[in-house]
Design a protein that fits this description.
mainly alpha, about 80% helix, disordered N terminus
Length: about 450
């Protein structure tokens, strides 16, 4: 049985498609601006720290911050995707689903924080324990909880089409990080402070967002009555949690593999390059999130929305790759000769952005149309193709191995995603043709 898909749509001009999908364009544009603001804020923060602090101090802080992002990824439970579909309006059911999502995210974040620090036990964790064993864990867990909440608050605001609030939160976080960086330069726990400056503002924005979300949605947090669609929401969350784990595993696991296998000073160079790459790669993900929020609504024209999203994402990532290749020496000029290794791995890692855009948006389309087989196949391929080689190459070649695994793995994943999409569309079109022939032969 083929996956259900909307009937083919008539070809329209780009202008007509844009006019017909104003909300998708608006959401994508705002999120791209947010990615730019986040990127600029992160780069300015890194530039200032590179001038103020030794590489190993910055390396410890970034390793700890990378660890917190990895735990946020583990604690997601598929809720950002599920809430985009099942908490997308002002109804009491949406308020209830969102409230339970907040509670589940908090519990999962604390458990995942404890498990990560106990099992993985990264060397940078000494930054927490040297300050205070209990207080260090509390700080780490609060950063994780607040950061995880910021993700679902953004999704709730997106479904309400309050894109300006999403952008305002991102800009405020970026400004706060830069404003804090000069504080405590002489502290004996400078690495811990830098970690708090990196993760604290986004965590605080998530906590404030959860407290104030009712002003956006016109409702309040509520634990009941039980929503009529709760079973479907839980199932959808579970399926997409597994697919999201696989889809995002390379994005969050690769920096952890690096920080566990290279010295702190080398990790700081990787973080500089990765900070640029991760922000750029957020652009297709943001456009995909906007596509998911709009494409999941009743009456959505998924086909034309998908074409428009592909034009935006692939075009932007291609332009970014060219700019990075031509301007890679700017990294050395800005950060200093000690960060030349960051400039050397950056162009190839950015070049992976074009296949990433294809994979990300084709995955969003598969999720909207409930093509579960394609969803699982794409995400598993992405994980295996990047994380597998990284586990071998990074211990042997350091951050150059991470660069190779990232580029080759993204190309392989995109090839699989494009192939699956083409095969699925052919099957769907064939089924539609057979149905039309059957109706014509029966005179219906």
């Amino acid at each position: 049985m083929s996956d259900p898909s909307p009937a083919p749509e008539p070809r329209r001009s780009l202008r007509e498609r844009g006019g017909g999908h104003r909300h998708l364009l608006t959401g994508s544009s705002v999120l791209v601006l947010g990615a730019a603001a986040q990127g600029v804020g992160g780069m300015v923060f890194s530039l200032l720290v590179a001038q103020l602090d030794p590489k190993h101090t910055f390396g410890d802080a970034t390793a700890l911050y990378t660890s917190s992002l990895f735990v946020v990824y583990l604690a997601g439970l598929g809720l950002p995707v599920a809430l985009a579909r099942y908490a997308s309006d002002h109804s009491p059911d949406s308020h209830t689903v969102f409230t339970w999502g907040v509670l589940a995210t908090a519990a999962a974040s604390v458990v995942a924080s404890a498990a990560y620090l106990a099992v993985v036990h990264p060397p940078a964790a000494r930054v927490l324990w040297d300050w205070n064993p209990v207080g260090g864990f509390v700080v780490f867990a609060l950063v994780v909880v607040g950061s995880a909440w910021s993700l679902i608050v953004d999704v709730r605001a997106m479904t309400m089409r309050r894109w300006g609030l999403v952008l305002a939160r991102i800009v405020a976080v970026s400004v706060a990080k830069i404003a804090l960086v000069h504080l405590g330069q002489s502290s004996d726990h400078r690495s811990l402070l830098l970690f708090v400056y990196l993760g604290g503002p986004v965590a605080l924005s998530g906590i404030i967002g959860v407290a104030a979300i009712g002003r956006i949605t016109g409702g309040r947090h509520r634990l009941g009555p039980r929503p009529h669609n709760v079973a479907a929401a839980v199932r959808y969350s579970g399926v997409n949690y597994l697919s999201t784990l696989a889809y995002q595993a390379p994005y969050f696991a690769l920096p952890v593999i690096v920080l566990l296998n290279v010295p702190s000073a080398t990790n700081s160079s990787f973080y500089v390059a990765w900070g640029i790459v991760s922000i750029a790669f957020y652009v297709p993900s943001a456009i995909g999130q906007a596509l998911l929020a709009e494409g999941g609504k009743d009456g959505a024209r998924v086909g034309s929305q998908m074409r428009l999203a592909l034009i935006l994402a692939v075009g932007l990532m291609a332009a970014g790759s060219v700019v990075t290749f031509l301007g890679r020496e700017v990294v050395v000029m800005a950060y200093g000769e000690a960060y030349r290794d960051a400039a050397e791995i950056l162009p190839a890692m950015m070049a992976a952005g074009v296949p990433w855009a294809l994979t990300s948006l084709l995955l969003s389309e598969a999720r909207i149309l409930h093509r579960n087989v394609s969803t699982v196949a794409i995400t598993v391929t992405l994980t295996v193709a990047i994380v597998g080689p990284a586990l071998v190459l990074v211990p042997r070649d350091g951050i150059e191995g991470a660069r190779t695994a990232w580029l080759v793995g993204n190309v392989v994943a995109a090839a699989v995603a494009v192939t699956l999409a083409a095969v699925t569309r052919r099957r769907t079109d064939g089924s539609a043709d057979r149905l039309h022939q059957h109706l014509a032969s029966t005179g219906r």
